[in-house]
Amino acid sequence: MVRKHSITHDYRLVPAAAAVWATAVAGLFLSWQAAVLTGLAAGAIGLAAWRRAWWTRTCAIALLISGPVAAAWVGSNVLRAETHPLRLAADEGRTTTLTVELTTRPKGIRAAGFGGHQAGVDHVVITAKANGAKLVLLAPADKWRNLLPGQRVTARGTLAPPRGGDLTSAVLRVRGPPTDPRPPPIWQSWADHLRDGLKEASEVLDAEEAGLLPALVVGDTDQMVPRIVDEFRTAGLAHLLAVSGANLAIVCGAVYLVAKRLRAGPRTAAAAAMAALVWFVVLAGPEPSVLRAAVMGAVTLLALVLGRRRSTLPSLATAILLLVLVDPALGGDPGFALSVVATAALVLVAPKWSRALKERGVPSGLAEAIVVPTAASLATAPLVAGLSGQVSLVAIVANLVAGPVVAPATVLGVAAAAVAPLWDPAAELVVHVAGPAVTWLIQVGRQAATVPGASVRWPEGWLGAIALTVVVATVVLLLRLKKTRTLVVAVLVGVFVVLVPLKVVAPAWPPDGWKVITCDVGQGDALVLATDDADRAVVVDTGPDPGAVDRCLKTLGIKRIPLVVLTHLHADHVQGLSAVLTGRAVGAVAVGPLKEPAWAWKEVGQQARSRGVRVVEPKAGERFAWPGLEVEVLGPRRPPTAGDTNTTVNDYSLVLKAHTRAGRVLLTGDVELAGQSALLGERDLGAEVLKVPHHGSRYSVPAFLKAVRPRVALVSVGTGNRYGHPSPHVMDMLRAGGALVLRTDRDGDLAVLPGNRIVRRRRGWSGSGCTTRATRFPVARPGLRGPCGRRTTRRRHGRTTSSNPISVTTSAKHSKTAPEPSPTRRRLRTCCHRPRPPNRRRRTTSSRSTCSTTNCGSCRTTGTTTTTTC
């Protein structure tokens, strides 16, 4: 028996679209030969289908033609990119000067600076064309951020090989500003003027709302607060931050409805909607993702105008064919894949689920509201998991709650951009009207992200995507069967009831007696050194996100910070400073000798002055002391040189050695090859714990790692970061040296405790809950000489015996209500402290004598006091 109102689709162009897409993927990720073979194989299948009448004639002919065409076109494009002279020059790392034509707007590598200001973006990525090749430019933000697509400029820099997965021939690491810039096309200048008007009008809102509105309208996330971006990702709302078919459908749909209300005919209304689509593409910028969304939005609009649901799937297949053949690089674009899968789910699955709900008495509007986010979220979940390594369990509910305000916020944002060039007060008024909707979205994302078990960690890559596809397909299939539906629902509810309390009542954190904690703040550094006072600690670097470091310090109960050390001024080490300085008594902020980049130095000074905190510049050889903690500055010892390149700034990182009750900790900032080589002259680099330089990048000197010889190597790194950190080679070197390597992206927060213990705070199933696991880190091999000639620890009868680390007891007590005073800086001459044998006496003199161990076992000079243990 056939159900009434059954929905049928025309699949004739689907095999051809799938063949073209598969050919592009094979060429981009394998080789041009693989593309040719894939396309020819598709053509052969089409020929066989035509001869044996497997499918309809149209389906077979479309596959027969598209397969060989895709093989020739994709194969030739991939071969051209791989053999272009610029690719050969990139393999050799040549420095060159090129005249390029920009094809996209500059995109900031970092989403925001202090408090969400654009100053935090220190480099931008731009795609360009030069000599028939596609390039990616990595350029300084302050000199390149205002350029527009279509401009021709001259750039000088060093070529590097691309990562693959697209048709890029080389990456150009630009040095200096662009030269000989030509004016952009007039329509690009006009679009830029509209975008600037929207951003200026949005400034009447709070910082979070002002950054989100341009992202909703035109996908401009440069002004967004990083915390909002993270919360949207966890909540499954990140798709709202990119221009997609939904944006275009909202704008074009609004124009179409207005035209119909004005009694325009169907064709006139459709023409008005198409004009709005073109205008919106100009506003958002002619980038590949925008063009993709425009074509798919046009497909949806055409289907709605003609009232022919059956034409939707062929139109989607046609869009795939045209887009991938015009630009084969789209075949490897994750955004393209997400858009296609989501659209296919809305076309194929959503109508059936909506009809099923209506048959069960659910109102039509509510059924559509439930089905659309559910179908899109389930369909895209495997791709999102493969890309991000996590699955949002609150995405469906979050999108359901956020959905009603997305369209009003988008339409009002577009209206504000349209009227901003004409009258600023009118644009600001429209933005004020949009404000409550934007605030609602922020609150939905924030509340959803803080739900226990909001996100589940999942294996990244193709295997993770395939595994989740199997899981989703199995659950959906079992839910369709009446015999298993009740059982599946009961199992899902049981898992939720069991797991959520585990996330709410998580194991205690921090562990008792912690001395060092590496906070998991993403792609950046933030480390906390404990003193003997429970609420007082030293903070070294503040990470890229104020929210992350603030949560870490609140969890630790830190209220007094005598010293905040910023090893260098890159955004992933200083952006969280505002949060650290807020609500806590801070004594001083320490910075290195190189005050670059200039924007960061300016912001650090402003943040400190606004809170009455001194900024100090410690020198190599200085020490800072508190009860239970002593911090020694090892470098840099060289005077700073001109230039603000990443490498120069990294090499002038402050390098510290902390003496804690859990052992010695070497804090290296982001020092690279030159900085590490300069430190090799230090008499004592040895440390039980090493904060691995530069997030474990490949720029590590083997001799430096050997000189430190750590038992534990802590790597502060973000999940799925674009830099490829940490380097597998460096991790292998550390393990070969006997170190236990721990990473924040895999192990979460890391705590070092006395007694050779490490406690990891893994996120486990979710990002909000946690599990803890204690690990005893390896003990150095017996018989080897440690610093100052002391032998390393030995194991006796299964126990570890070692000398106590240095213990500092010099510091004044401070009131909890008074501001934390800056630390006392002193120069100390220290010998190694050995355990004092019984029957030895301690002799203290108050003279300016120098430390001598001729007749005694150890000695220490502090100011005018010499303490000698005999």
Describe the structure.
With 870 residues, the protein is of the alpha+beta class. Among the domains are: 14-83, no CATH class; 92-184, Beta Barrel (OB fold (Dihydrolipoamide Acetyltransferase, E2P)), CATH 2.40.50; 186-236 and 394-458, no CATH class; 516-801, Metallo-beta-lactamase, Chain A (4-Layer Sandwich), CATH 3.60.15; 829-869, no CATH class. Helices cover 45% and strands 17% of the residues. The strands form seven sheets. A nine-stranded mixed beta sheet has the order 16-15-13-11-10-9-24-25-26. Helix 23 links the parallel strand 15 and strand 16. Helix 8 crosses helix 17 (424-449), helix 11 runs antiparallel to helix 12 and helix 12 runs antiparallel to helix 13 (334-348). It is globular.
Q: Could you tell me the radius of gyration in angstroms? A: 31 Å
Enumerate how many helices there are, as a single number. Answer: 28
Strand content: 15-25%
- CATH topology annotation of the domain at 516-801: Metallo-beta-lactamase, Chain A
Distance between the termini: 100 Å
Name of the CATH homologous superfamily of the domain at 516-801: Ribonuclease Z/Hydroxyacylglutathione hydrolase-like
Question: What is the CATH C level class of the domain at 516-801, in words?
Answer: Alpha Beta
Gross morphology: globular
Main sheet overview:
9 strands, mixed
Major beta sheet, strand line-up = 16-15-13-11-10-9-24-25-26
Percentage of helical residues?
40-55%
CATH architecture of the domain at 516-801: 4-Layer Sandwich
Structural class computed from helices and strand pairing: alpha+beta
Low-confidence regions? 1-5, 111-120, 502-506, 764-770, 779-819, 821-870
Q: What does the average pLDDT come to?
A: 78
Number of strands: 33
InterPro entries: ComA-like_MBL (IPR035681), ComEC_N (IPR004477), Competence_DNA_uptake (IPR052159), Metallo-B-lactamas (IPR001279), RibonucZ/Hydroxyglut_hydro (IPR036866)
Region (Disordered): 765-870
Organism: Lentzea atacamensis
Domain Metallo-beta-lactamase: 523-719
